[in-house]
Amino acid sequence: MSVVGIDLGFQSCYVAVARAGGIETVANEYSDRSTPSCIAFGPKNRSIGAAAKSQVISNAKNTVQGFKRFHGRAFSDPFVQAEKDNLAYELVQLPTGSAGIKVMYMEEERNFTIEQVTGMLLTKLKETAENALKKPVVDCVVSVPCFYTDAERRSVMDATQIAGLNCLRLINETTSVALAYGIYKQDLPALEEKPRNVVFVDMGHSSYQVSVCAFNKGKLKVLATAFDTTLGGRKFDEMLVNYFCEEFGKKYKLDIKSKIRPLLRLFQECEKLKKLMSANASDLPMNIECFMNDIDVSGTMNRGKFLEMCDGLLARVEPPLRSVLEQAKLKKEDIYAVEIVGGTTRIPAVKERISKFFGKEVSTTLNADEAVARGCALQCAILSPAFKVREFSITDLVPYPISLRWNSPAEEGLSNCEVFPKNHAAPFSKVLSFFRREPFTLEAYYTSPKELPYPDPAIAQFLVQKVMPQTDGSSSKVKVKVRVNIHGIFSVSSASLVEVHKSDENEEPMETDQHAKEEEKMQVDQEEQQKNEEQQQAQADSKAESEEMETSQAGSKDKKMDQPPQAKKAKVKTSTVDLPIENQLLWQIGKDMLNLFIENEGKMIMQDKLEKERNDAKNAVEEYVYDMRDKLCGLYEKFVSEDDRNSFTLKLEDTENWLYEDGEDQPKQVYIDKLTELQSLGQPIQARFQESEERPKAFEDLGKQIQQYMKVIHAFKAKDEQYDHLDAADMVKVEKSVSEAMEWMNNKLNLQNKRSLTLDPVIKTKDIQAKTKELTGICNPIVTKPKPKAEIPKEEQNPAEQNGPVEGQGDANTGSQPAEQGTNTTAPTATEKKLPEMDID
Ligand code: ATP
Ligand code: MG
Region Disordered: what ranges (predicted)? Predict the structure, then answer.
């Protein structure tokens, strides 16, 4: 199981993983921890991340960026419509009505859904994680803005599936940051103490989010969130772009906005300028060569002027800060720290506005770029059974109040009920009871469309099926469980029908009477949190709340729930039957469609892989040409005849030309064949060079070995005490082998010395090595035979014992027993003078 966290940013993404050493933000193939949220479509493949970013201008129409906020939106959505005209690529209405992108891919016009596009980006991020972890990645946690509605969240969930990921949690970006902050804090107040309130501010490229969280030991509770969904770095870039469009327009008579390429370049340059201004208050130049119509443009800007231009944007910093305090009923003094993250908080004026509001310095203890991803990885580690992480519970909230609406025959019209008020703890489940005779529909919607940064308050419709009256014709009690799940998505998660079985005639008639009165009504029975949130204090609070809701919803008509059900139902047996629910979710991709997208993503991954292999094969040919051409006039010069060199050089030049002409775009096999053909010419030269590099050492080793044995023979003949235990017949064998090896070596050396280097050598290194092995195989067992008495010889003839391992000895055979086997383990040192014949080339 993999532990991976993904910050899916508007401009760039980060991937963090959990390893034995802790949480680590990992780098992509460009050694960059940030991966641009960018996909470029080409005639043969897709490029994702940094490779796509470099095509923003050159392949403008087919390079997609800035799509994060199109998730779960209709093409007709005012936000989509407003963005549409500023994009270099084309946005289209898909048959489902949702927004899609239209690009040329594989030389065909193709429409992709936003889920597919994000799926592609996730494919890349998954690969980055896999490269870092060196194993397949499936499980992960992905971040989304805290203000995302259900449709947006579901859309991102679909994208994760398209990329073959199993998203264990969609976590709110600010909550992820809070987790990254809190889990390492050792000094949080104890559970019974007043919590520590910390404000988290994230201003990225597209949006601005603020949350206030209460921390106690081992837990965090999000108290409130507020946001400005369109305030981010790009708004500041736009200010500069608009300024220079006007300035350059007047100065150089250019209509910059009429052409996408110069406009995109200006955006890039303005972003750079904006960043420079964060560090520098002086005048800064804005120069772009060959900007438009071959004109070079230049201008200046400074921080003071920039801030003046951005006054309206900066004024939008404060309201969300004020809002979170109001919602959480906290005063500025109650705030322990204000932690800021997100690239745009690097603008000094943004920082100042925040610190001025709170009357305290902001903290930048968290990594502004990586905190979200790190928090995601931490959440994934908490959810993963494979990882041991400090206990830390997270209670998030419901950002917008959620209501249910249903047709109520008893009340002759629509009834509704707010099931989750704003800032209600999440994830959370509640059980509602309805008294019905037939299937019915529950319509979920956001109660306050005005505060919703989304045009449609509808969430979904849930048809509770197979509802039947009781056997006596009265209404059945239908228990419906509604839930805001771990991803922050609302659903009717289950429904069951309570069947009443009467056991005898004297049964209490109350129940059915009661039902008759209650008919077609609804009551909130209870609230419950799911398993992993159960420990939390919040649950107890909410349960108390739920009792109140029950009476307020059901009035005084039904008090049964206040007492144990058994007390009243002594003569009535009940059983429950699960009911199927049919969902109609806003902008939800159908299962078949999703499967098709998953399949298509697989095909595109395969296509990218094939294209990469083809390119690698082509690059290999190119590399070989350059490398060989260099070496033929350098390292390999001596090893090839002039004629061969000339013809080979010619061949290499032809290949180089071919690569730029006919060979520019060939199937992989053509490049492989081309390389093989060149290698067949180059390989013998390369081998001769290699041999000549290795041969002297091989001869030297053999020479040393011969020399060592000769020394032993000599000592044996001189009746040296050290060798007097050796067998004379054996020593004759040694002498014979040594002289035969010496003759062999001298012969080969002489032949080789006479041979031209441009021809294959008379003897291969491996044969010399084999000869050495053969010699030691015969001689070593004889000369290293241990002396019968275990007596430690004192003579200097055994330096191995005195000096430790000698040159060439693999391991420390320094004990009193000589080594049993091995080539260089004989007693004599290897530093004797060389044999006179050893003239090594
Ligand atoms: P979002 O959070 O909206 O999805 P994101 O996560 O991709 O977007 P970040 O990476 O947090 O955004 O921030 C990117 C923004 O921060 C860009 O607008 C970038 O220009 C801006 N930024 C980065 N560094 C600086 C700086 N030194 N000064 C000013 N702005 C900066
Ligand atoms: Mg961000």
Answer: 503-575, 779-841
